Amino acid sequence: MEDLHLASIVVSTIRNAPVLMFAAMAGLFAERSGVVDIGLEGKILASAFVSAAVAYTTQNPWYGIAAGIAVSVALAMVQAFVSITQKGNQLVCGIAVNIAMSGLTFVVAQFFFQQGGRTPDLGAARLTDVVLPGTAALDNIPFIGWLYGHVIGGQSVLVYLAFILVPIVHWVLYHSRFGLRLRACGENPHAADAAGVSVERTRYLAMLVAGVLCSFSGAYLAIVQSGFFLRDMSAGAGYLALTALVFGNWRPLHTVMGCLMFGLFGAVQIQLEGVDLPVVGRIPGSLIQMIPYVVTVVVLAGLMAKSVAPKALGKPFVKSR
Predict the structure, then answer these.
(1) Under CATH, domain 6-122+152-303 is a member of which superfamily?
(2) Where is the signal peptide (predicted)?
(3) What pLDDT digit, counting tens, does each position of 148-204 carry?
(4) How far is the CA of 207 from the CAs of 73, 98, 134, 210, 211, in angstroms?
(5) How far is Cα 34 from Cα 207, in angstroms, rounded to an integer?
(6) Smallest Cα–Cα separation from 238: which of 221, 257, 253?
(7) 3-state SS track over the chain
(8) Which end of the chain, N or C, is surrounded by fewer C-beta atoms within 10 Å?
(9) Angle in degrees, CA 65, 71, 77, rounded to 5
(10) Is the confidence at residue 48, as pLDDT, over 70?
(11) Residue 157 burial by Cβ neighbours in a 10 Å radius (0-12, 13-18, 19+)
């Protein structure tokens, strides 16, 4: 057990969480407006591939992030058109996006790069970690040096963005006019329509924001964490983000706590690999990799009945005549 370092687990948790945080915040906007966003997984994959491909081609990670935003927003608008304008089945539309992107990203990656469905290593095109001033001077001070250099500092810009977004999303949702209209459209769209709110326009804006936020999740996976794109590299992150929404009862701060919880289990999973534990010995890697998904099932089984989703979630809005 001496190989299980608490410091490493804390740092890994912070670095694992942004993938889920961005996707969960995206799902929060969509579902608070009344649109079920099962397609988070597909948008993560699409933005991860495009971000990696453009960053590698241009050797500029910011171009990759911009391209990831564009493709994620495009997919979100397709979902919005089918779900909002055409009143289609939101679950089927989201699943279709997921299936399509799982196959399409692999095929396009193989066509352009000929590396078994992955992109080349990004190398210098990866986003570098931010080194705060004074890190070297404080490095030898117990705890403070580690806290300043590896927890507060030593992270990517996207990590800071993920945590900065939490209070911003909370304020927008509960203290802005847009947030009030968003919640009204998710709870009682007919009342919102009677008050002069354009339900379709509000839901389109929510999906636009969701597309932008979800793109950061894919860009983080490819440009920060991995340094390349690999087929199905999201590994269910979109579904875990939806589980975090249920865990957080569709509230920003509580949802982020769920994301951190899944990030923690992911960090523990990494630390457990190859470690001999008392009594049980070395746990097979396949069992360790199951930890986040087993936790997902437990969370859903325990909290689904207690969570209260927006009342109009998944229901197409038909304007009263």
Answers:
(1) ABC transporter involved in vitamin B12 uptake, BtuC (1.10.3470.10)
(2) none
(3) 888 888 899 999 999 999 999 999 999 999 999 999 999 999 999 999 999 999 999
(4) 8, 16, 41, 5, 6
(5) 10
(6) 221
(7) CCCCCHHHHHHHHHHHHHHHHHHHHHHHHHHHCCCCCCCHHHHHHHHHHHHHHHHHHHCCHHHHHHHHHHHHHHHHHHHHHHHHHCCCCHHHHHHHHHHHHHHHHHHHHHHHHCCCCCCCCCHHHCCCCECCCCHHHHCCCCCHHHHHHHHHCCECHHHHHHHHHHHHHHHHHHHCHHHHHHHHHHHCHHHHHHCCCCHHHHHHHHHHHHHHHHHHHHHHHHHHHHCCCCCCCCCCHHHHHHHHHHHCCCCHHHHHHHHHHHHHHHHHHHHHCCCEECCCEECCHHHHHCHHHHHHHHHHHHHCCCCCCCCCCCCCCCCCC
(8) C
(9) 130
(10) yes
(11) middle
Q: What is the 3-state secondary structure (H, E, C) of 131-189?
A: CCCCHHHHCCCCCHHHHHHHHHCCECHHHHHHHHHHHHHHHHHHHCHHHHHHHHHHHCH
Nearest to 160 by CA among 9, 18, 262: 18
Here the tokens at position 275 are: 């470690």
Cα separation of 237 and 262, whole Å?
10
CB 35 within 8 A of CB 207: yes
Of 22-26, 57-61, 232-236, the least confident: 232-236
Amino acid letter, 115: Q
Please name the residue that has the structure tokens 């949702």.
Answer: 173
C-alpha closest to that of 261 among 278, 249, 247? 247
User: And the tokens for 129?
Assistant: 């970690």
* Ramachandran region, residue 235 (left: φ > 0; alpha: ψ -120 to 50; beta: rest): left
- Residue 29 tokens read as 């906007």
Whether residue 90 contacts residue 36, with contact meaning beta carbons closer than 8 Å, is answered with: yes
